[in-house]
Amino acid sequence: MTRATQKDVARRAGVSRSTVSYVLNDQIDLKIPISDETRQRVMKAIAELGYEPDARAQSLRRGDTKIVAVILPVIQNPFFWQILSGISDALQDAGYSLHLVHHPLNEQQEANTIRELKRQRVDGFILLAAVKYLLPRLTDYLRKAGRPAVEITSTRAEFDHVVHGYSSGTRELMTHLLQLGHRRIGFVYGTAKEVQGHDRLLAYREMLQEAGIENHQKFEMHCGENLEDAYQAAYALLNRADRPTALLVINDMLAIAAMRAAGDLGLSIPSDVSVAGFDDIQFSNYILPRLTTVSGKAEESGRAAVRLLLNRFAEPELPQQVTTAEVQLIVRESTGPVPMPEKNE
Which of 27, 36, 131, 153 is most buried per CB count within 10 Å? Predict the structure, then answer.
């Protein structure tokens, strides 16, 4: 069966094709008004024929696409997919589609990313990483594209942005561990780029200094962003004679790898070592033991980014928009009191 066209609708309704177009686009301020009876006839013909407007043709007439490109640097971490879920839901509610672009932050892929963005016409961009983390050519393209962009970032940024920082949450988490008696607190810092988790790292260092703990960087372990990287880093830290009694891990996904390392060393969580992460991915509430974490309210951050973008579409001359995402410490089973001395020494 061939797809019905506007011409078919016009023939069935006994009107001109332009009249069908006016009715479809709800254009009522015309020199020659269309009667309610004619509108009803056109709508009846549309229903009978099962006619569906061509979205691409409509967007060309309007000058927009009703598509937003979302640039995602990391596909392995479920946290980003939770943000993406919030973005997708909010865009659908507003009548927009989502075009996902994976940009893995390496120079070999930069040209491919720019080529894909140029090929797919979009109304705007949402970046799940601050522009300062992107590569220079892609950053330059976004600045010159002439379309609104919103960033979800841990710090201030040049476009409209949602500040999704963990500094306050890290301080809450460190207070929690210090109150449990921990003094040897390690940090598995697994990132693709060194600056990506600075909000957490700097707060961690500050809290140790404020607590009067000397050699506060002694238990930092910097590593890559993959599960195996985190596993090896945690294993090395926990295999030391003066091992930490608690571990912060840059995100929940890598915290799960660190928990495995503890288990492989015969350590019990939290009686031998406490482990905590960031993001509150869904898995964190279902592993054994349940993971203490700092929630970044991922889906709400995605919805907030869409709100900023829609505001910019409606009022292009708005001053820069900034909104701050909520964070929340969620204490679960993976953190507990510092072990008795005989268990560590």
Answer: 153
